[in-house]
Amino acid sequence: MKGVLVTVLALAALVAVGGSHLAPYDPAAQDLALGAVGPSAAHWLGTDDLGRDVFSRLLAGAGSAMLWPVLVALGTTVLSTSLGLLAGYRLGWVDALMMRAVDLAFAMPGMLVLIVVIGVLGGGYGWAVLAMAVLLTPGDIRVIRSLTMAQRELAYAEAAKTLGLRPSRIMFRHLLPNIAPTVVAGALLSFVVAMVSLAGLSFLGLGLPAGTPDWGLMVEENRDLLDLNPWAAVAPVVLLTLIASSATLLGDRLFDTLSKGGSR
Amino acid sequence: MKSPTIRAAVVALLLLPVAACAGSAQKGGSGADRDTLVWAFGVAPNSLDIAHGFDTASTTIQLAVLDTMVTLDAKGVPAPGLATSWTQPTPDSYEFTLRKGVKFTDGTPLTADDAAYSLSRHLDPAVTSQAASYFTTVKKAEAVGADKVKVTLTRPNPAFLAVSAIAWQVVPRKLGEAHPKDLGSPEVGTLGSGPFKVVKFSLTSGTVLERNDAYWGPKPALRRVEIKTILDAETLRMAVRSGEVDGTDILTPREARKWTGLPGVTTTFYPANNIAYLALAVGNGPLKDVHVRRAIAHAINRKALSDLMTGGRGSLAKTMLPLPQITALYGDDVPDFPDHPFDLAAAKAELAKSAYPDGFTMSVPYASGTDGATVMQAVAADLAKIGITLNLEPNPADKYRARVMEHDRLSVQYANLTYGTPEPVEVLPDMISRGAAEPQGFNFSGYGSAEVDARLDTLASATGDDRKKQVTALLTEIAEQVPYIPLFHSSSAIALRDGFTASVGTWTPSFFTITRPAGS
């Protein structure tokens, strides 16, 4: 099972990197006279109402569908791991301050904040990605903090302190490996949440500009074509679901594997 | 959209049957009786007063509830309404004779003073009427007898009667004076003498109308109309299909294929008084150069775009007037206006004459999820072929509309405006007057000059062949200077479940008065 999941995600990553080169047509090339037609030998997944090849747009759209969520996951993981370790290890006012900030962040409706950033303030897509990374961080901080608090009381951590090791060394060299399974699973979950959320923003017309080959945008632009070429809207949904499910399941499997095999 | 007038509603740049029930209980939709129509709009009506709700949904209801002094007949020609007749003693004045015995639905007699007041209030700055721009040539309106109303204009205006058919809606003076700012709101409501009366008006839970049995004219066949709002087009279609809703006018030619095949639903298309176009902001960077504007006009495949957007239920626009207005003015003798046919070589040649021979890049905002998004994608792809890169910037539709109406950073805007009368004078000042180039105006190109304003003033009082010549000259100038690129005219449509029938046309004032239970 894990092999299948890895294969799916590896293929997705491959297409994300080279999808534009693999596309049989220019994903932006229009043929208004052709319009929306169903699958054929020339257009495997048919065309949209502007006559653009859906298969080519799917391949070209894999980049934005995967790249931005990867950036969000990386940002979230680095931030939440660092801050969670710090709060859980240092405790005291550092922990109190950080947890109140986390409480405040939890009070904010994430999706609405993103809509405001993009739609009202005109912040642009890059700012939305940054905002999403920040918004996903508090939840992971709490998890990492609680795990760190448990680990810091164990004998190996006490021994490290007794030996006079610097706190940063204890946190990142000794505690972090023991909470790594959760960090890895959390990173994959962040990737999934980011991918679905960013696709949702695009579906709402608040993400990338019209015409960009983006899976969320494709669903929005082509949902009126279900009677002419359902694949134009269904295919990106299938891919989003497949990749999100694979990443979630892989996160679970990795957590189990790393937890069993983890060492102190 | 095609209902009465309502241009403001259709900035799409800017910009919903008693179930058939054959044989059985004679019930339709959610209505309890066969003569109850459940209607749906795609946007909620916001006021029962045109002064504060000059949009498609609001005005459709207003014209079912409030009488106008004149109406438009099936050909768009002014016809008697509350006024049984009128004379024009001088070129700049009208005298209307009021219909006798008309009462508001509360039983109060409708007087000449009410009629005069209902026009004058649009001139009152305290009212801040959205219809004020229709009556800029009105100097005063006064009751000059028990059944006479005199209107004095600042100058002759042949369009006055036509615009009055939409906007001179008569309300009681007492009510209007008590509520200058909030007449028509859910809290205040309105009082009319029209074929229907308002039973309920809510911004959130809908509107209910009932037949005015004391109406002076032909009684509506419908006893009750329940109006709801369904924002999503596909949800609305499903509601009509299921019989939850009996009728709607919120369907576009692009969606015609989805509606025409619906079982138990009849869809009727008719010519809309609209014009879809691109406005090029002549004060913005490269667009200042007429050669750039001509290059853009040549580079866009307007025929393909027209076919895409109208689904074959429309036509390529060749000049900047709605088709019914062109027909009303010229008949079959339409002049050949200068054209910029789709021709990439000609586009490149024009661009070579400009200060931007290699093209340029420009940011272009658009409204997400609207026809404008589709149009601008097609336009951007066409312009890329001559080196002009449009960076499309998505905006929520409301934000985009507000931004365009504020004339904020205008560049290339798609708009689709529907007008209410057959008068070109309704359109041209919107397009090229300097006044309309100010925020809240519809001159999105910013094109205009003192000389053009003077010509528009002259046109306002011109008649006959002189009028045709002046309109032709202005349209020719627009075609040559390209502040606008006309794209297409589309049809309007209504969909009704089989339990109802309606004979609808371009100048139909209210769907509710012309809809009747099938077989009645």
UniProtKB/TrEMBL annotation, chain A:
Residue ranges annotated as transmembrane are: 66-89, 101-121, 175-208, 228-250
Location(s) in or outside the cell = Cell membrane
UniProt signal peptide? 1-22
Question: Which positions fall inside the ABC transmembrane type-1 domain?
Answer: 66-251
Family matches, as Gene3D superfamilies: MetI-like
GO CC annotations on file: plasma membrane
Among InterPro entries, the record links this protein to: BP-dependent_transpt_permease (IPR050366), MetI-like (IPR000515), MetI-like_sf (IPR035906)
**Where does it primarily localize?**
membrane
For biological process, the GO terms are: transmembrane transport
Q: Note the topology in the membrane.
A: Multi-pass membrane protein
Arranged from A to Z, the UniProt key words for this protein are: Cell membrane, Membrane, Signal, Transmembrane, Transmembrane helix, Transport
Q: Which family does it belong to?
A: Belongs to the binding-protein-dependent transport system permease family.
Q: What is this protein called?
A: ABC transporter permease
**Lineage of origin:** Bacteria, Bacillati, Actinomycetota, Actinomycetes, Streptosporangiales
TrEMBL record, chain B:
* Molecular function per GO: peptide transmembrane transporter activity
Q: Which domain of life is it from?
A: Bacteria
| UniProt similarity note | Belongs to the bacterial solute-binding protein 5 family.
Classification via SUPFAM superfamilies = Periplasmic binding protein-like II (SSF53850)
What UniProt keywords apply to this chain's record, in alphabetical order? Answer: Signal, Transport
The top of its lineage is: Bacteria, Bacillati, Actinomycetota, Actinomycetes, Streptosporangiales
Q: Where are the transmembrane segments?
A: none
Asked whether the UniProt record includes Magnesium among its keywords, one would answer no
Domain Solute-binding protein family spans what residues? 78-425
GO terms for cellular component:
ATP-binding cassette (ABC) transporter complex; periplasmic space
- Name of this chain's protein: ABC transporter substrate-binding protein
Give GO terms for biological process: peptide transport
Q: Which residues form the signal peptide?
A: 1-22
Gene source species: Streptosporangium carneum
Task: Respond yes or no to whether keyword Signal is given for this record.
Answer: yes
